[in-house]
Amino acid sequence: MKRRETRVTPLAGFGSGASLGGKISSYRNNQNIYTQGAPAYTLFYIQEGGVKLMTRTKNQPSAVTAILGVHDFFGELCLAGYPLRMSTAVALTASSIRTIKKSKMLDLLRRKNKASNSLVTYLLSSVKHYRDHVANLLTSSAEQRLARVLLRLAHLDKNDRATAEIPVLSHQVLAEMVGTTRSRVNLFMNRFRKKGYIEYNGILKVHDSLRKALSQ
């Protein structure tokens, strides 16, 4: 989601992702990038913007399984032989995303150089992120889950910056990410603002002090 600063990740060296090849496409806010059950022949690299992954099971509402930002990949399960999409990918805001063919990525992984090693490290760590996200849904309160989502969107979950800015998302969208109601998100956001954890001013400013909410 972050536009003014770039998150430092093992894949930040890919920059615009030009070395990955593929086509760059623009997506508007809340636009589907792919849907669950669609054929999986490609994966994606976020150059600007943000994406949420949502999974739906029979007779159950969709659940957000991941929040992704700049330099993140998604749709990578196709590399493991999954023929269909296991989730629906939706743009969180106006986003610029590179589409990479599965065959191209497999070729990069086979080269066994620094770039391929970074990709392997990233793909393995993404599995841990998904597992941790599910664990947080099961063990954290709705307020703590909201704090984690905001820190993730601001990339403060991995960096040491004190403050970061993200586009303001509707409380309904945040409620869907967190798995709670819009009214409760409104309550939590007001509480965070009163405590000085966040600020509103056309954009949403998230302070590192929001981490305190994770232990309350």
Describe this structure as you would to a colleague.
The protein has two domains: 12-139, Jelly Rolls, CATH 2.60.120; 142-215, Winged helix-like DNA-binding domain superfamily/Winged helix DNA-binding domain (Arc Repressor Mutant, subunit A). The strands form three sheets. The chain has a four-stranded antiparallel β-sheet. With 216 residues, it is of the alpha+beta class. The protein is built from five helices and eleven strands, in the order ββββββββαααβααββ. Helix 3 (142-153) crosses helix 4 (171-178). The model is unreliable at 1-10 (pLDDT under 50).
How would you concisely characterize the structure shown here?
This protein is of the alpha+beta class and 216 residues long.
For this entry, give a set of tags.
alpha+beta; globular; 5 helices; Arc Repressor Mutant, subunit A; Jelly Rolls; four-stranded antiparallel sheet
- Decide which structural class fits the backbone: alpha+beta
**Widest sheet, order of strands:** 1-8-3-6
* Coarse shape: globular
Q: Could you state the CATH homologous superfamily of the largest domain?
A: Jelly Rolls
Radius of gyration: 17 Å
> How many beta-strand segments?
11
The CATH topology of the largest domain, please? Jelly Rolls
CATH architecture of the largest domain: Sandwich
Instruction: Specify the helix fraction band.
Output: 25-40%
Per DSSP, the total helix count is 5
Instruction: Please indicate the percent range of residues in DSSP E strands (runs of 2 or more).
Output: 15-25%
CATH class designation of the largest domain: Mainly Beta
Terminal residue distance: 26 Å
Low-confidence stretches: 1-10
Helix-strand pattern: EEEEEEEEHHHEHHEE
